[in-house]
Amino acid sequence: MIVDPFARLGIRRCMGISKDELETRYLKLSKTCHPDLNRTADVAEQARILSLAAELNDAYRTLKNPWERARCLIDLQDPQLFTMTKKLAPTFLMTAMELAEDVAEVNADRAENLRLTCKRKLDLYLEEIAELLLREDYAEAAVKLHESKYYRKALEDLNNGDRRAG
Amino acid sequence: MSKSPDSDRLILGIDLGTTNSLAALMTASGPQVIRAQDGSALIPSVVSFAADGSVLVGQEAKARALQDPENTIYSVKRLLGRSGEELQKESEGLAYTVTAGDRGLARVSIGESSYSPEEISARILGEVKRTASAALQREVRDVVVTVPAYFDDAQRQATKDAAELAGLQCLRIVNEPTAASLAYGIDGSKDGRVLVYDLGGGTFDVSILRIQDGVFRVLATAGNTQLGGDDFDRLLAERMLGSAKLASSALAASDPFALQTIRRSAEQLKVLLSETEIASISIDIGGEESVEFSIARQEFEDLIRPLIDETLDCCRRALADAELTIEDMDEVVLVGGSTRLPLVRKSLADLTGRAPNCEVDPDTAVAQGAAIQAGILAGGSADLLLLDVIPLSLGLETMGGVVSKLIMRNATIPASVTEEFSTQVDNQTAVDINIYQGEREKVEDCRKLAAFKLRGLPPLPAGLPRVEVTFLVDENGVLRVLARELRTGTEASIQVLPSFGLSREEVRDMVHDSIEQAIPDLRARALIEVQNKARAMVVGTRRALELSDLPGDESWSLRAAVDDLDRLLSDGVDEATLNGAVDKLSALSMQIADDMISSAVTKALREEA
Asked: Which of A43, A121, B175, B378 could share a disulfide with B5, CB 3.0–4.6 Å?
């Protein structure tokens, strides 16, 4: 049972959603279902509202992030597609390998540069994926989303590296 | 405020602080701080146990700190939800004694007896309750209690337990900086992005909030639950003890009286240094003698600068997590008594490029915010809403001691994740799930919150039962776990064994004042638990060994440890022996997991190719 986050927030199912609209819908819906505003309800109703509120927060978190949004669009089309798309081009794997090494060996001076490169690359991927999804080429979108995952992971590692050092 | 609060529903907002506690109540004209007859609002968070058996709380207890330091407990908030071991370094500087009790939990020793931090905190909450009930001429029962935003699940649970022990019903736990932001932005004219910097007596929090049409939404939070004004006092006290005059005096650093005298003097000096560039104090060293100690503000600031720098790092981290920069902030709000320090204000001004907002009263803003939240719960402020976040990621222990994250830090709460579990042996009817909180990858670097035991599974071949477990973090930031067996529809029951703080049963027992402990019972239960854990480890590790392609020597040592444990199990050895073998095996598999993580990226790539 997958909850469709787009339906949960009442916005059109697509990559190019308006951030403002998403936020407005989310805040409005939060005011209709939050445990704090339903204290007089009975126990069963309070439990239902609690899980609805959790569901709403999860839906907003998914749609707010463009990578998760793309993943969600692919999953809604075909829940198996993304996980089944395992085969990536050998040339890409070489690049990914080098990226992993760069991240592992990066020093403080170069971290910011590498971070920017990864960020730019991820943004480019997301633009490409948005176009593929618009053309309903879900299979290729899934491949590109897999590839972009390595840049996303690299960014995460770079940020966490900072955290650990600090 | 569209409606006036339900007049039958009295909900008090309480700021349970490290140094002082206080309460406030929402009224038609806004939050009102509760004051005692003498006009004072702050109740010192101090509890003193007198020789005649009486217990003093608040101002009277604080007055006894110098004459009876060993039996006068202050800063107990720093002990909440923590183990004796974690507090070892912490407790060295205290004038009273902290020991490790059952399950290694911190306890405070008073003469022959000892108390849990929850019990001491309950005394403070009881005093707040009495003061408020007297001021309002009504019995107080329902409360909203604030905690540092960076408190983890165990510390939050301990706070709730303390309220229960004080005969209060804690309807909601609210994060202190979030509460302060309510007090700051309640008039509705402050929409925008706000950084709340909350430096109290024992804890530090920073929260980044978005205020929008009555919704106070926390975007990110960071902090340190063991950093506050107490630490500044401690550093200053160490400097004083190290000074030639005091070092050669009759004062011994290990003497509780001396410790308390120096601590008190350090606190006074700190306050003086906020006003003047140089301050001095005369310290009574006993026997009619006194020693004069003076220090320049600059020197004091050099002492505490590393700690202030740490708070600034937290600010940067919270901003990064919120994906915002300091330029995006419309306001920087200061809360907590320690923000009176000139160095704090100057450092923040340097970081943010503007003067911080000092509109809210740093001492009462948190209690006022708690009162506003209490008003929301009572149904009086339907146009206001708080959306808070979980401060630290929650995860599960997976094979080899690795934590797999379920809910990421700074996720808006309530938040939930559903995972499926199965069994590893035929006819297995229980499954163990270990929950950790923290940002690191391995279990030993995170805090174990609890062990959950799923019971009542239908006896089926291994792997066949499908148990759906939902981990739900509620609006208080407290974890709830729900489980269901999907194949047969059986409700699986869950037994929770918290790693810190009190178990549900313990709280119930204490509330009913029947503290007769059935020790043989507990021992038997402990043994069964270790046996179950050992059995699960034997099966799990053997299965993992079959599946993985470990190098020969590693797999040999692991196999030997598994066989060892299996033999001890069938020999029916005692709990301690079995525990030793379990620890040995987990250490070994953890070390192997370590090697696996370091090569994980390359391996994942190889598999995909």
From this structure: B378
Interface touch A58/B415, C-beta < 8 Å: yes
The confidence score (pLDDT) of residue B211 equals 93
B215/A163 CB distance under 8 A: no
What is the predicted ipTM?
Answer: 0.87
A88 shares a domain with A152: yes
Residues of A in contact with B609 (CB under 8 A): 88, 90, 93
The correct CATH number of B518-609 out of 1.20.272, 1.20.1270, 1.10.287, 1.20.1250 is 1.20.1270
- Interacting residues of B609 by C-beta distance below 8 A, sequence separation 6+: A88, A90, A93
Residues 6+ apart with CB under 8 A from B499: B83, B103, B154, B447, B448, B449, B450, B451
Yes or no, beta carbons of B411 and A57 under 8 Å apart = yes
Nearest CB partner across the interface for A50, out of B320, B385, B474: B474
Beta pairing, strands B192-199 & B331-335 = parallel
> How far apart, in whole angstroms, are the C-alpha atoms of residue A149 and residue A147?
5
Residues 6+ positions from B129 with CB-CB distance below 8 Å: B12, B140, B143, B166, B167, B168
Summarised one tens digit per residue, pLDDT across range B14-24 is 999 999 999 99
The total of other beta-carbon atoms located within 10 Å of residue B92's CB is 11
Domain B11-227+304-387 architecture: 2-Layer Sandwich (3.30)
Q: Tell whether the model's pLDDT for residue B236 goes beyond 70.
A: yes
Return the structure tokens found at B151.
């408190």
CATH superfamily of B229-303: ATPase, substrate binding domain, subdomain 4 (3.90.640.10)
According to the model, what pLDDT value does residue B515 have? 29
Domain regions of chain B by residue span: 11-227+304-387, 229-303, 390-517, 518-609
- Number of domains composing chain A: 2
pLDDT at B258 over 50: yes
- Are both A87 and A138 inside the same structural domain? yes
pLDDT-above-90 percentage for chain B: 44
Please report, for the domain that includes residue A25, its CATH number: 1.10.287.110
Given a contact cutoff of 8 angstroms between Cβ atoms, the answer to whether A46 and A107 are in contact is no
- Output the pLDDT for position B285: 73
Model confidence over B115-153: pLDDT tens digits?
Answer: 999 999 999 999 999 999 999 999 999 999 999 998 988
Q: Which residues of A touch B378 (CB under 8 A)?
A: 39
- CA dist list (Å): B78 to B60, B73, B101, B142, B220: 21, 11, 17, 24, 23
Which residues of B are catalytic, by number?
A: 15, 77, 176, 198
- In this structure, are residues B362 and B334 in contact, taking their beta carbons and an 8 Å threshold? yes
Structure tokens belonging to residue B469: 């477990």
Q: Which chain A positions have a beta carbon within 8 Å of B377's beta carbon?
A: 36, 39
* Residues A161, A85 share a domain: yes
Query: Do both A132 and A89 map to the same domain?
Result: yes
In a domain, A69, yes or no: no
State pLDDT tens for residues A33-43.
899 988 888 88
Would you list which residues of chain A are within 8 Å, Cβ to Cβ, of chain B?
A: 27, 30-31, 34-37, 39-40, 50-51, 53-55, 57-58, 60-61, 86-88, 90, 93, 96-97, 100, 104, 159-160, 163, 166
Chain B residues whose CB is inside 8 A of the A93 CB are 605, 608-609
Residues of B near A (Cβ–Cβ under 8 Å) read 171-172, 212-213, 215, 217, 313, 317, 320, 373, 376-379, 382, 385-387, 411-416, 439, 472-475, 601-602, 605, 608-609
CA distance A151 to chain B (A): 13
The architecture CATH gives domain B390-517: Sandwich (2.60)
pLDDT at residue A148, rounded to an integer: 92
Residues of B in contact with A97 (CB under 8 A): 602, 605
For residue range B300-314, what is the model confidence (pLDDT) as tens digits?
A: 999 999 999 999 999
Q: What local confidence, expressed as pLDDT, does residue B600 receive? A: 47
Range of the domain at A36: 5-64
Longest CA span, chain B:
82
